[in-house]
Amino acid sequence: MSEQDTDHSSRFWDSGYDTTTPTTFECLNCGATIVSEDSIGTCERCGGGLRNKSMPIE
Amino acid sequence: MQRHTTQSADAERTSETTTNEPSSTLEDALLQLERAAELVDVDPNVIERLRHPTRVVQVSVPLRRDSGEVEVLSGYRAQHDDVRGPYKGGLRYHPAVTAEECTGLAMWMTWKCAVMDLPFGGAKGGIAVDPKTLSAAETERLTRRFAEEIRDVIGPTRDVPAPDMGTDAQTMAWFMDAYSMQEGETIPGVVTGKPPVIGGSEGREEAPGRSVAIVAREAARYYGKSIDGLTVAVQGFGSVGANAARLLDEWGAAVVAVSDVGGAVYDPTGLELSAIPDHETQPEAVTTFEGAPEQRSNAELLELDVDILIPAAIGGVITEANADVIAADIIVEGANGPTTFDADAVLEDRGVPVIPDILANAGGVTVSYFEWLQDINRQSWTEAEIEAKLTTKMQSAWEDVEAVYDPAMMTWRDAAYAVALSRIARAKGARGLWP
After folding, report:
1. What Rg value do the Cα atoms of chain A yield, rounded?
2. Arithmetic mean of pLDDT, B155-166
3. pTM greater than 0.90
4. Neighbour order of strands in the sheet with A23-27
5. Which of A10, B300, B359, B435 could potentially form a cystine with B337 if both were Cys, beta carbons 3.0 to 4.6 Å apart?
6. Residues B202-254: pLDDT tens digits?
7. Residue B332, beta-bridge partner list
8. Rounded CA gap, B137 and B358, in Å?
9. Which pLDDT score, from 0 to 100, does residue A24 have?
């Protein structure tokens, strides 16, 4: 979502993500690192699922 | 229950609106502890112990940049409580990492593991650095040195880190290798979130979304809503939101709206999720999807009149400013902290149930637990096994929280924290205070 849509005043822990710079994703299948300005969801190398590295997983 | 009124000096300067919003992560965690303590019959001495982390380790981590220049960065590991098992929590590389933030986050991990009945305590750590300024070689050197600097306080039976903001499976692989080399044996259980080839688990990708979907289904059942035709709006079509939406769709719900960074698509009769193109072939697939009759902004998605709203993108999207216009019957928190403290109070007054993140998106840490179990037992489970075990664990956690929940007395968030605090207190009572 755009910066305008939120005030990013989370209860705690996460800083949200910076939409002004490209996002780094990791492929949970092959381990590839993909930097993209788009909200991609699938690894272009193996088709595996991606994780946005700016978000926690636990 | 009394809401504690706190206001930072900065907030006073920048806003004329009175707010109860905590000014820091740690303050929020402490406030939640006090709220839970009012609901559970717990020895005050236990509460006093839980107000303080066991330890917060700060280390200097020298990094040789590719240019040859040496930079010294600050690293942290906050360990809140381990009465129920080894500390557990992520390692983040982010410029805003501080000892205080790590302490608050560690506390939050204690509650999250306890509400899920995982045999872990809570921890969090990281390095104050912008990961986008690091080359791959610099990230590897930094990670290996950080692993060595905190090696004395971590280990598969002491403290088990995981990926977090700015770190990934490769970071965990380097961390595990550095630890193993220094210990003289291969120890995969020292971290979770590793690549599968060195002991990482199957099922990581879908876990948080699956847990959100299971909890949404259970919440619907509690409020007498059938899954068939249940209307659902999902903000955020990343790994959590997309997996939750697809599972709910598969189970018969009508997912009427989904969004990504660019905005939302809306079909009051239910979107055909399988028709939304794969991101690989069409980036920003949600906003360019032409199979929906209507488009919405992300803010408008939050205001849709649906059975269940799942904010699954980022924190802080439901605030005091829009809590009054949320029309959903139930909110299930897919992201961490999508509802601000003040918004929580507004929704509580309005009687809108909010199923908290520490329960709903706990699939991530639960699969981390499964990975740790596989590693220390030298086993490898199939994806189907992971899926079945996760479903069992989530349903069990939901039933435990539902058993405590009393709508006249508390919110769902309070109930989840009460379950967590009860478990921790019982463990403290059984073990006693040494010496």
Report:
1. 13
2. 97
3. yes
4. A33-36, A23-27, A50-52
5. A10
6. 999 899 999 999 999 999 999 999 999 999 999 988 889 999 999 999 999 99
7. B355
8. 35
9. 87
Domains and CATH numbers, chain B: 1-52+412-425 (no CATH), 53-187 (3.40.50.10860), 207-339 (3.40.50.720)
- Which SS3 state, helix, strand or coil, does residue B290 take? coil
Please list, in sequence order, all residues whose beta carbon lies within 8 angstroms of the beta carbon of residue B24, skipping any fewer than 6 positions away.
A12, B8, B100, B101, B104
B376-408 per-position pLDDT tens digit: 999 999 999 999 999 999 999 999 999 999 999
Question: What type of residue is A3?
Answer: E
Q: Which of A13, A32, A16, A15 is nearest to A24 (CA)?
A: A32
Task: Scan for tokens 């991606």, then name that residue.
Answer: A50
Mean pLDDT of all residues in B338-367: 96
Q: Where are the alpha helices (DSSP H) in B309-382?
A: 341-350, 357-360, 363-376
State how far residue A3 is from chain B, nearest Cα, in angstroms.
9
| Nearest-by-Cβ selection for B284 from A21, A39, A44 | A39
Helix (H, G, I), strand (E, B) or coil at B330: strand
Of B166, B261, B319, the CB nearest to A39: B261
Q: Partners of B125 in the beta sheet?
A: B77, B91
B365/A19 touch (CB, cutoff 8 Å), yes or no: no
Using CA coordinates, name the residue in chain B closest to A55.
B165
Q: Is B223 exposed, middle or buried (0-12, 13-18, 19+ CB in 10 A)?
A: exposed
**Position B115 confidence tier, pLDDT thresholds 50, 70, 90:** very high
Of B304, B299, B362, B306, nearest to B333 by C-alpha is B362
**Residues of B that are catalytic:** 124
- Distance separating alpha carbons of residues B210 and B190, to the nearest angstrom: 26
The rounded distance, in Å, linking the Cα atoms of B102 and B269 is 44
Whole-complex ipTM: 0.81
